[in-house]
Amino acid sequence: MLIISNDEVRTLLTMKDCMAVLEEAYLERHHQRALSRPRTDLYVPRGDDAYYVFKSMEGLLPVKHVAALRINSDIIKWRKTPEGIRKDKQPLADGNWVGLIALFDMHTGKMMAILPDGVVQGFRVAATGGLAIKYMARADAKTMGLYGAGWQAETQVISACVARTLEYIKVYSPTKAKREAFADRMSRIVGIPVIPVDKPEEAAQGLDIVVATTNSITQVIKPDWIGPGAHVSCVKHLELGEDVIAKADFVAVHSQLTVPENYVIGQGEKRIYGQDPNEHGEHKASETGWESAVELHTILGGEVKGRENDEQITCFVNNIGLGLQFAAVGALVYSLAKERGLGINLPDGWFTEDVHP
Amino acid sequence: MLIISNDEVRTLLTMKDCMAVLEEAYLERHHQRALSRPRTDLYVPRGDDAYYVFKSMEGLLPVKHVAALRINSDIIKWRKTPEGIRKDKQPLADGNWVGLIALFDMHTGKMMAILPDGVVQGFRVAATGGLAIKYMARADAKTMGLYGAGWQAETQVISACVARTLEYIKVYSPTKAKREAFADRMSRIVGIPVIPVDKPEEAAQGLDIVVATTNSITQVIKPDWIGPGAHVSCVKHLELGEDVIAKADFVAVHSQLTVPENYVIGQGEKRIYGQDPNEHGEHKASETGWESAVELHTILGGEVKGRENDEQITCFVNNIGLGLQFAAVGALVYSLAKERGLGINLPDGWFTEDVHP
Asked: What is the predicted ipTM?
């Protein structure tokens, strides 16, 4: 049983490899040879305007004989800011957060590894956005605009550069110093100009690819800013808002199950879709309705075209994650860690039992 | 982060303590101050007449500030025997099985402990059966009949003896040598005669408490064997069958959610209730229908009487487990392990992260 750290994941994972294993996993999913269990979120109010939230999801990828369980044990506060409502996970675990991936071997049942989810999380979200660019953006897309300057924005820049040969990227985020530091850092990483812009519209107007990767749960892009032929995507559909999505000629989603299944203490063991446990509308039922939307895997599988022509506006809603992503990326991380002798080995026997469970 | 072994759990847990913490947890549940996420089972056929099955469930118990996740990573075969269909978990993890409980601190989010589920499993099922005896059997119940001679039968004998002062127990299981060894061993443990019987009816006729704790998924008790005033219970409703349950004047269940939520590969990310992924009818929809049954916690909470008089036949269907049980018993095990310095301490930092998840 291997304990792998975020630092090790960082040295092991490349965006290119990550996109390749996810592409394979989505094809497996398309052929119904993979399985994910929808994310469930359990909410308990703490009495200090925060919630304890326990999230879990699972994915099984038989071709790699890996089952993955992703767990988040969070204390979350929602707060109003001039830019909208923001959700903040409180780092109360000695200044850290708690997000874990446990990997299991489907041949033996054994737990193979535990690793933090942070680095994988950035990779898998961005890699999926990158695959959407690969299959949905114009073949000659050369420019990108980006909203957000956090860790998800960082990996999104890299996956876009894997998917297309870009000439430059414009980035907007509300804090000037933050977007400038981000642009400076990312320019050096991807080797093309990453340009901080002062007005939000400049990160969309006239650009081929427009991506929102913020922690905002209110609209950050206006429909007027999006021109013909653009590919637009987001990590939360609320970042785009209904009118931006409505402007697209073709919309695909990561999963038709847009909202997690919520269980809220005091309401019995009842599953609640699209309700509002935190009273901030993050998962409003009115904003769902993706039940019959095209899922990304059907485009990868060749069943549906990602784009019909160079004039269409395409939109990818990189909504709720799938356990499958953690199985695919986790399997890759695990095999590389074994190959390179990384991670801390714990006795397998600590995690098996001779008592019939 | 503490790694606790089954052997340590055995030295730490007593049935009396276990019943006490579960009683408290059920009261919390009754007052809607606890939360469980229904068990989900993910099925993938292996191609060798077995399935890989990944099960998980969760429970949050704020009064103890503990969240528990219970995981089973099993390879399961179903086989026909003269006594009915049996389900066998294959010990392919170096000869062992894989069932784990992970405990989280709701104050900080931190993972507090990982322990195998085997010993806890025996305790929590039997403790719940014991609480049902406490609240539903006649106050003067003095005799018990038992079906099964496995590990669950063992703990069930102990919890019955905590709930009532018994004079003797009769035990039946199909293999003579097994039931005799069991009776011999248990007599010494509980200090009252445990008598092996050769005919199945002898473990029910004229007895005050009749409990089925087998791994059979077909009926083991006939309705004619149950007399007035008896309290009957089972760990799977199929052990009793519909006619035994129908004979009872009052029936309570552990949970109204009798069947887990199944996801079967090849059928999309669809939740399937009561279907038959393994084609052996373990979770047939026709045998469910407990959606409005009385749950044990309502009896503990004083809302419903467990028994009206000494003539009634009462029946407790100790059906599907609740994550809450693992939170309650897990919290107890963890606090005792800390108190007595047991378990292997791993650095907390291995299981937290400074990367925002």
From this structure: 0.91
